[in-house]
UniProtKB/TrEMBL annotation:
It comes from the Bacteria. InterPro entries: DiS_bond_form_DsbB/BdbC, DsbB, DsbB-like_sf, Uncharacterised_DsbB. The lineage of its organism: Bacteria, Pseudomonadati, Pseudomonadota, Alphaproteobacteria, Rhodospirillales. This is Disulfide bond formation protein DsbB. Its main location: membrane. GO terms for cellular component: plasma membrane. It is found in: Cell membrane.
Length: 163
């Protein structure tokens, strides 16, 4: 028995979020690809898509709002990914803490404490590519397509609300 669009589309939002996060965590913990801060920021929209999907399943009357937010969230994530690719390609410097800062005054205790902590991964380091495109580059494509798909669903669906 096929799902109605009222149930199917929120379920797809959940599936997208779970799949994207599972892929990111598999790359991190299974294959040792360390994420930078921009990589971590790009995971947030996928977690939010899970929440939005659950809201859509729980409150079908809110589906217009759910897919409006999904469109905005995925488009914003594509924007962050464009910014990340720019940092990777050295088109511009990162405005976030990617790789630490040069400290002018440091105490001996601070120096000893810093030796035991791992420095933040630099956002301009590309650890993995497929067809010459980094993970952030693929996220532009993926998030852009998800934004377009969410907008398409939002504009073409006539939501049947259960009575």
């Amino acid at each position: 028995m096929p799902l109605s669009p009222t149930r199917l589309y929120p379920a797809l939002l959940i599936l997208v979020g779970v799949s994207a996060l599972a892929t990111a965590y598999t790359a991190q913990f299974g294959f040792g690809l360390e994420p930078c801060i921009l990589c971590l920021y790009q995971r947030v929209p996928f977690a939010l898509s899970i929440v939005l999907g659950l809201v859509g399943l729980w409150r079908p009357a809110w589906l217009v709002g759910v897919f409006t937010l999904a469109t905005i969230i995925f488009a914003a994530n594509a924007g962050v990914a464009v910014y990340h690719v720019g940092v990777e390609q050295h088109w511009w410097a990162s405005a976030v803490g990617c790789g630490g800062k040069l400290v002018t005054q440091v105490s001996a205790q601070d120096l000893m404490a810093s030796l035991s902590t791992k420095p933040a991964k630099s956002c301009d380091t590309v650890d993995w590519t497929m067809f010459g495109i980094s993970i952030a580059g693929w996220n532009i494509v993926f998030s852009g397509a998800l934004a377009a798909a969410s907008l398409y669903v939002l504009r073409t669906r006539k939501w049947e609300t259960p009575s």
